[in-house]
Amino acid sequence: MPKVIRGYVRAIDRLNRIIGRIAMYLIFALVGVLIWSSVSKTFFTPTIWTLETAQFVMVAYYVLGGPYSIQLGSNVRMDLFYGNWSIRTKAWVDSFTVLFLMFYLGILFYGAVGSLAYALGYFGMEPFSFFWDLFTALITGGPDAAGEKLGFLERSPTAWRPWLWPVKVLLSVGVLLMLLQALAELFRDIAIIRGEDI
Amino acid sequence: MPYEMIALLMFSSMMLMLITGQRVFGAIGFVGAAAALLLWGTGGAEIPFSAAMKLMKWYPLLTLPMFIFMGYVLSESKIADDLYRMFHVWMGPVRGGLAIGTIGLMVLISAMNGLSVAGMAIGATIALPELLKRRYDKIMVTGVIQAGSSLGILVPPSVVLVLYAMIARQPVGQLWLAGVIPGLMMAAMFVIYIYVRCRLQPDLGPALPEEERNVSTAEKLRLLRAGILPLVIFAVMMVPFVNGWTSLVESSAIGAMAAFVAAVLKGRMTKEVFETSLRETLAISCMFMWIILAALGFGAVFDGLGAVKAIEDLFTQQWGLSPWMILVLMQLSFIVMGTFLDDTAMLVIVAPLYVPLVGEMGFDLIWYGVLYTITTQIAYMTPPFGYNLFLMRAMAPPEIGLRDIYISIIPFALVMVLALVLVMVFPGIALWLPDTVYGK
Amino acid sequence: QSTIKWRMQTYAGAALAEHVVKPAIDTFNKIAGDRMQIELYYADQLVPTGELFRAMQRGTIDAVQSDDDSMASPTEVTVFGGYFPFASRYSLDVPVLFNKYGLNEIWAEEYAKVGVKHISAGSWDPCHFATKDPINSLADLKGKRVFTFPTAGRFLSQFGVVPVTLPWEDIEVAVQTGELDGIAWSGITEDYTVGWADVTNYFLTNNISGAWIGHFFANMGRWEELPEDLKLLLATCMEQSHYYRQWWYWGGEAGLRVDGTKMRLTSIPDAEWDQVETAAHTFWDEIAAESPTKAKVVEIFKKYNADMQKAGRPYRYG
Ligand SMILES: NC(=[NH2+])NCCC[C@H](N)C(=O)O
Ligand code: NA
Ligand code: NA
């Protein structure tokens, strides 16, 4: 395989592994928030932020951990036939079907970016060009100019009213990482088909 | 396109995608996304993502990593070893006693975690080698462990019942209590089956040899203490919950904490145990979450395209079936789908269609949750697709072949079907406990 | 000419939608026949309620029934939808405010700015507490985890209430599993209709607002595509649904207080409850300070309530 591709696969594997291993510890954050929620309810006044915070942590946990879980091979497959195939056959079939997976992730990503743009106050139909504008404004005019481009910041419809853009950033980034990992898997399969090692 | 066609098309392409062996969430997610793009009209492409926001708001899901973590802490830290010793010594002298003891072990483990993975892991690593060494029949013990561990989802706490509760919008507390007696009943049925089989064919499960039985009474009593730990963990989690002092998600965190603290206090929380429990919890939680995410997207598209209404019509109007016939048909379709589909995906996709119908026909949705869970237990063991099968294949020693594994589940699956029928015919088996506790 | 198909999602779960929207949509479908059919979906069915607005703006869903607050619409008028504390006393106040005091115009304009057609505002029930434990004084509100509207929650938190927002269909179960101590989301008619009366024991007769404000909306593009007569028919059916609700709630509230057996009634003495009403007026001023549009709406509320006060009985007693 060309050197760039091998480099890509290694870099993505490393990146997602690191992120996933950090995400792994979020379980303690989750336990902490929920225990605090029951402690404060029993001994003081209940808090208004625990449930939503726990939900945000959970999103981070599974979205950022997703690519690492692909590396760990924990996403089950129905192996009625698959289980009996040789490694090469699996690689052949996977290299096609992973495209379907990527299609799904692509649609998710499209939705995530649109929803993030909305959370930043963009109501139009071209979220990607909105982000491009935001980016160029940031480069040429600094944070203030970028701030100008933002509109009505979406808040969660609860009394705590946290902004929603942080969790949507998480979702967008996480899905993108998933997509990059899926592409790495594709390259790995192609390498197997060609009898090479990555 | 007529609605029936859409339903058929989406379902069959999902099956086709699954057969290719691509990751289950990818297969389901793809079909949902493609259908949204092709058939929805404006804005269809947003639906798969809006499922992520729905997922976020589904707060009972927070219990998922908690119960999974509990299970891994229990199995990895080998807290269960002492429990196993207890059953070994107490039950050993009886014919088939070690297998019966393994069922007992599985019941206790089930009370401390929400899935069956922990039971599988403990069964396959601790019990299985010992049983084989004692010349128990390999087919028998393979079945015992698969079937016994599946009690993890029927005996509370249960992740499957939490998921069902979310979809059927039923109280988790009542569902969990509803699972207790059927779970114990099923365990008892396994025991009876093992006992009778070993009476008839003593070489399937020989009693422990004389020299191994020489354990002093004091020692025997000392071993009983091992049984306290599971009860404590169960109580720490369930008592505040059933009394309404803590909410479901809070209780699950307390349970996870309790298991963790127990492992630390017993000096079992080594670096490896810590690492493996954390990593595996992430891995399994991600598997679940991504499947649910994909299935929620699929479900919304399926519903928005009118396919759900079409299927309801089919059941109630066109075929003109009676409520009981519909119910039986639903269970059968769950069993058939369960042989080749992931149970969570099946639940998220199919239950929103079945559950309202069950409610309208006047059946109790708590009771139906128990029926669903038993079907899922069967699904876990039946080839070609079953989680306990996968795990058994991965963990079994080389002398146990695939054929053995497949054969081993037949009698146990039949016992489960029998249990299913019993609960169907006598709903009180499931409903008596929740009705009593919550004073309906 | 093929049938126009719309998807409409309501904030209400199936049990409630049975009254607040389904009859109107059924009527519309029957009259429109082959020309147009609206498929009705319930709370969180296709998209979660928090995403309703965006889904409609994008055209994923064609029409929506909701209050502004629950669906988090990105407009200046969002806080006033649902229950704006003490803005109204009777359900007839809402149509008067919209038709005679100028709220219709403000809403139409604010929603047009964000690509959405505001079709019609309707009025619902008053907002009361339904709880597991009795509330007899303001002190009893302290620490109660209550399902309520975002803005009402913000307001109530100064009395120690802990507002919680969950998917509508999960409320009944959340009360049972201890996630919630109660609900401040509706009057007693809904408590009985949707099953909340089965999981709570007490109903507080004091309310924090006399009537809910909710609306029908549509995606602007899809609305524009409709021929004039269908627009008219749709608006008429929606208007008609307001009438159904007027008697259903009004009669229901009184009837269940008198004959209901599932909930005990409790009250906070008027003198104490006045503190809440006073706090509401402070809250109004805080909101008015946020923007000119909000100030304008608050001004209208003030004017209307002053007029009603002057008019005396039967508009206002004391
Ligand atoms: N639906 C699923 N993805 N299930 C995975 C877990 C299966 C496993 N046998 C358990 O119950 O623990
Ligand atoms: Na369990
Ligand atoms: Na199966």
How does this structure look, described?
The complex is a heterotrimer of chains A (198), B (440) and C (318). Chain A has 198 residues and is mostly helical. Chain A contains 6 helices and no strands. The mean pLDDT of chain A is 92. Chain B has one domain (58-269, 306-437). Chain B is 78% helix and 0% strand. The relative contact order of chain B is 0.15. With 318 residues, chain C is of the alpha/beta class. Helices cover 45% and strands 17% of the residues of chain C. Chain C has a 6-stranded mixed sheet with strand order 7-6-8-5-9-11. Chain C has a 5-stranded mixed sheet with strand order 2-1-3-10-4. In chain C, α2 (22-32) runs antiparallel to α11 (228-259). Chain C is globular and about 65 Å long. The N and C termini of chain C lie far apart (60 Å). The model of chain C has no long low-confidence stretch (mean pLDDT 94). At the A-B interface, α1, α2, α3 and α4 of A face α1, α2, α3, α4 and α14 of B. Bound molecules: arginine and sodium ion (2 copies). Residues 338-339, 379, 382, 385-386 of chain B line the site of one sodium ion.
Number of helices of chain C: 13
What is the beta-strand fraction of chain C?
A: 15-25%
Count of distinct strands of chain B = 0
Estimated helix fraction of chain C? 40-55%
- The proportion of residues in beta strands of chain B is under 5%
Rough outline of chain C: globular
Q: Which two chains have the most extensive interface, and how many residues on each?
A: A-B, 59 and 65 residues
The first-to-last residue Cα distance of chain B is: 47 Å
Rg result of chain B? 22 Å
Please tell me how large the radius of gyration of chain C is: 19 Å
Mean pLDDT of chain B: 88
Note poorly predicted spans of chain C: none
Give the overall form of chain B. globular
Number of domains of chain B: 1
Describe the sheet with the most strands of chain B: none
